Structure formats: structure tokens, C-alpha cells
Amino acid sequence: MSDPTAPRPFDDIRALVTSRPAPDADAIAATRAREQDLTKPAGSLGRLEEIAAFVAGWQGKAPPEVSSPTVAVFAANHGVADQGVSAFPASVTKQMVENFRKGGAAINQICLTNDLALRVFELALERPTGDILLTDAFDSERECAATIAYGMEAIAGEVDLLCLGEMGIANTAIAAAVLHALYGGTADEWVGRGTGVSDEGLAHKADVVGRAVARLDGERDPLVVLQRVGGREIAAMVGAILAARQQRIPVVVDGFVTTAAAAVVHAIEPDAIAHCLFGHVSAEKAHRAALERLGADPLLDLGMRLGEGTGAALAAGLIRAAIQTHRGMSTFSDAGVAGPGGE
């Protein structure tokens, strides 16, 4: 018989959340002081100025620098795809991963445009998670925790800005189930068209998600929710978010599915996603509601719903522009220009 007092795999995850580092107040102050001396009216670059201070605080460096930005795309398959909740079969996940590797996807083009490294991680595509309508996604707490740990290890190396993305047929149903379980309401509120299902398909998808979440019988523990109705890519992104916090790496969250991973971390401890920026609000109907729950103000609103990290990668270009502007602009004294109040 197992010892009920023995440490459980999720205990280590929760302990990691509580040991999170804080932003560097001195780096933030130095960045804001330099911002006031740049050759422009105070506050005239609006949110770009906030971004520069944000990145400086998490990097602990003034002025901040983004020289090794990376997009990490996690790909997984889901047993619930067998329930017909997507317009495409699960085999498309593997096909799209190959497309990423060949450079033919939208994310490849955006990474090329913004000079971003791209890493693609396959998560046992030949072995989908359990069909959440019938059983738990992960067989055990240990399996789920191991996938979180994999995501933590995936961002090793030179990374100073991490953009998260995903690929996985049926994963908008999974994300909807996670958010529905965490935040309540009805399945209809959290389910969207994903890959473009019909009206009939949308109603069926909501029914599947609603019945899957009903199996939880009101369970709200975020890690248990992840284990029971989540997916491997969401668990891996939870790990990546946690590891980035430990390494003081700013994170750019992509769309609806990636936000579900951030929501799991936020539900453990709201401050645990303080190092995250949200790249965009997607056209997936519940994404805006999820962002509101997180208190997040997305950088872009372009009506996108592709996934792959595309919104985060576009936002990374904006972030790089903010950092380069802060670093490269002359100060009033350097330029010999009269500053505020000058002649």
C-alpha cells in the first residue's frame, strides 16, 4: 500500500512555483531613467516604453537586450480527436510538424522575417493522450509531471526571449476543457470553431467538452485538471513557462491553446505568470474571456487563429523593435538636443 504522506510528483511542481524569482527593480528603474532622457517627448512611445522596462526587469539587465529570441512549438495528439471535434484527422499533426521542419509553414516565414530561432518538439505523436470524454488524458500524475519536466528542459541553451506555440489536431477542444474546468460557466462559452468546424460540428464539440469536464465532478485543482482533461503540449508549455521564470527569461504567450497553459500556471499562483506577455488575442471566441481572467492585455489583435506560435512570433518583432529603439536612440545630452524645459 502506498504511503499517503509520501511526496507526490505534483508537489515538486507546486514547490517550484513558490520559489519563483522576482523582476530586478534596479534594472527597471535604470531603464525608465534612460527612457526619460531619450530624444523624444516623455511617454511618446507608449507601450513600447513599458515593454523595454518589462524585459529589463526580467533579464536583470539595463539596457535590455534581445539577441537570442526563440519560438518553441510543442506538438501532440489527442484521443478526443476520435470524437470528431476537429475538421481534420489527427494525422495532420505529424504532417504539419514535417512542414515546420521543411520551412513551409506560416511560422517559418514569420521567424525568418523577425530573425527568430525555431525549435519544434514532438511529444509522442504516435501515442495520443486518452480520449477525455471516456478517460483521463494522462494515465497518472507521474506521467503528467514528467511531461511538464520535459517542457522545462526543452528551453535549455541561449534564449533571452521565449515565444510559445503549439500544434495538435483537436487541441482547441482540449484547451476549452481546461478553461471550462478552471473557470466554470458552460462548455458553449469556451468552445470555438478551431480548425473551422460547421455549426453542427461546433455544437457537437461543445457537447463533448461539456461531458468530459462533467467527469471531473467539480475538480478545480489546476494540475489535476491538466492531468485529467489536458494534453501533452499544454503540459510541456506549463513546464516551459515555469522554467523560463526560474531562468528570468521573458515569455510571449501565443493564442487560445497556449493561453490555457498559462491559465494552469496562473491558477496555481497568479504571480507565476508575471514574466509573460500575451502576443495577441485570437479569433477563437473564448480567447478574450480567458485573457480577461488572467488580467492580460495582448499586444496585437489581428483576427488570427492559426496557432503554431504565429501571434507570439509577430509580437516578438514588436518587442525587438521596442528594445532596439530603447538601446539605439540617442539621449538629449548625446545628441546635443535641448531636453524637456531646454532652450
UniProtKB/TrEMBL annotation:
Gene3D superfamilies according to UniProt: 1.10.1610.10, 3.40.50.10210
User: Does the UniProt entry include the keyword Manganese?
Assistant: no
Question: Its catalytic activity?
Answer: 5,6-dimethylbenzimidazole + nicotinate beta-D-ribonucleotide = alpha-ribazole 5'-phosphate + nicotinate + H(+)
Q: Name one GO molecular function term.
A: nicotinate-nucleotide-dimethylbenzimidazole phosphoribosyltransferase activity
Enzyme class (EC, first level): transferase
Ordered alphabetically, the record's keywords are: Cobalamin biosynthesis, Glycosyltransferase, Transferase
Q: Which Pfam families match?
A: DBI_PRT
Gene Ontology BP annotations: cobalamin biosynthetic process
Which biological pathway?
A: Nucleoside biosynthesis; alpha-ribazole biosynthesis; alpha-ribazole from 5,6-dimethylbenzimidazole: step 1/2
Q: What is its EC number?
A: 2.4.2.21
Q: What CDD domains is this protein classified in?
A: DMB-PRT_CobT
Catalytic positions are: 308
> InterPro entries given for it?
Nict_dMeBzImd_PRibTrfase (IPR003200), Nict_dMeBzImd_PRibTrfase_bact (IPR017846), Nict_dMeBzImd_PRibTrfase_N (IPR023195), Nict_dMeBzImd_PRibTrfase_sf (IPR036087)
Q: What exactly does this protein do?
A: Catalyzes the synthesis of alpha-ribazole-5'-phosphate from nicotinate mononucleotide (NAMN) and 5,6-dimethylbenzimidazole (DMB).
Member of which family? Answer: Belongs to the CobT family.
Protein's UniProt name: Nicotinate-nucleotide--dimethylbenzimidazole phosphoribosyltransferase
Species the sequence originates in: Amorphus orientalis
- What does the record give as the organism's lineage? Bacteria, Pseudomonadati, Pseudomonadota, Alphaproteobacteria, Hyphomicrobiales
This protein's encoding gene: cobT
